[in-house]
């Protein structure tokens, strides 16, 4: 569907509800989909256009976790409720986020894809775009982390601040595009990585922004209060989570590399090259050595090519405007 077709669908949706279309605003902070606010004469809604059309996991999860309310869902888009909310603060709202994540992990959603399958698919997609033996080498060094299935459950895998809503002193999780079954240890490790981000400001993870050891243990202590199925104390869980962070960095590096190769960049204000390099830097710290150096060189060369194309595109646009 073209953008005009989506706009027509929005107007039809509003007409059925007895509302008039006023306007539409692009959300700049969306990095995986195109997200818009729809304004009518009576209400506000969210329109999401799917970049990744494979959303069977998300559609299944929405049957069990209906926040926000979905008004219309088609193959290429959905229209959902706009919820007035505050943006949670990672450190100030540790208890609220830990509680929300524990409750999410305890939700039973049968028949959805596993993280292991999702990761293998991402590896294969990257290798199809351009084969790099270093990707296979890093995967082989990390796959032991996937062997223990004893702590598998529903995991979110994208707990950035934009996917959490603070409403009435509760945190609600939204946007389940990357949700799947997998290790809850991985999901917590992935969240700890996200605490190092500030996507409104830049495209990198900075350790000084994120949770320190004290924050992490406070989070785990609160989490364990709300997930009593875990037969592990805070110290044991902390050690497992720290080890699992490399898998999170590898997954999101592959996500960034794929987007750079496909020139599939949803957000004008997000630097996918810098993001991919930054994720690699954490794997470099984890002693993956030569393979990380080779992947870094590849991304740097892609970044140079991308900048050249951008300059050429801008010159072309200026020429068209002149004529």
TrEMBL record:
Enzyme's top EC category: transferase
Coiled coil: none
Classification via InterPro entries: Kinase-like_dom_sf
Matching Gene3D superfamilies: 3.90.1200.10
One GO cellular component, as annotated: cytoplasm
GO molecular function: choline kinase activity; ethanolamine kinase activity
One Pfam family per UniProt: Choline_kinase
Keywords: Kinase, Transferase
Gene Ontology process terms (BP): phosphatidylethanolamine biosynthetic process
EC number(s) given by UniProt: 2.7.1.32, 2.7.1.82
Entry's family note: Belongs to the choline/ethanolamine kinase family.
The protein's name in its UniProt record: Choline kinase
Organism from which the protein derives: Trachipleistophora hominis (Microsporidian parasite)
């Amino acid at each position: 569907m073209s953008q005009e077709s989506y706009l027509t669908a929005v107007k039809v949706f509003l007409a059925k509800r007895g509302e008039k279309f006023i306007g539409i605003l692009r959300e700049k902070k969306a990095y995986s989909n195109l997200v818009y606010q729809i304004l009518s004469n009576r209400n506000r809604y969210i329109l999401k256009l799917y970049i990744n059309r494979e959303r069977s996991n998300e559609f299944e999860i929405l049957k069990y976790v209906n926040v926000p309310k979905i008004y219309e869902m088609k193959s290429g888009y959905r229209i959902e409720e706009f919820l007035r909310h505050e943006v949670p603060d990672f450190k100030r709202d540790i208890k609220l986020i830990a509680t929300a994540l524990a409750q999410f992990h305890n939700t039973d959603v049968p028949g959805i894809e596993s993280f292991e399958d999702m990761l293998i698919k991402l590896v294969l997609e990257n290798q199809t775009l351009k084969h790099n033996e270093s990707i296979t080498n890093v995967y082989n060094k990390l796959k032991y982390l996937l062997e223990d299935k004893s702590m598998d459950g529903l995991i979110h895998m994208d707990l950035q601040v934009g996917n959490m809503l603070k409403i009435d002193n509760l945190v609600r999780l939204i946007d389940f595009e990357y949700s799947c079954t997998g290790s809850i240890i991985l999901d917590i490790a992935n969240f700890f990585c996200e605490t190092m981000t500030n996507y409104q400001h830049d495209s990198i993870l900075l350790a000084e922004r994120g949770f320190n050891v004290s924050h992490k243990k406070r989070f785990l202590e609160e989490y364990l209060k709300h997930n009593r199925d875990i037969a592990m104390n805070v110290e044991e869980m902390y050690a497992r989570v720290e080890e699992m962070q490399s898998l999170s960095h590898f997954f999101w590096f592959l996500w960034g590399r794929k987007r750079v190769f496909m020139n599939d960049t949803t957000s004008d204000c997000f630097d996918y090259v810098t993001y991919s390099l930054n994720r690699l830097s954490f794997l470099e710290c984890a002693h993956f050595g030569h393979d990380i150096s080779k992947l870094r060189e590849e991304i740097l060369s892609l970044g140079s090519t991308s900048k050249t194309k951008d300059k050429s595109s801008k010159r072309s646009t200026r020429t068209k405007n002149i004529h």
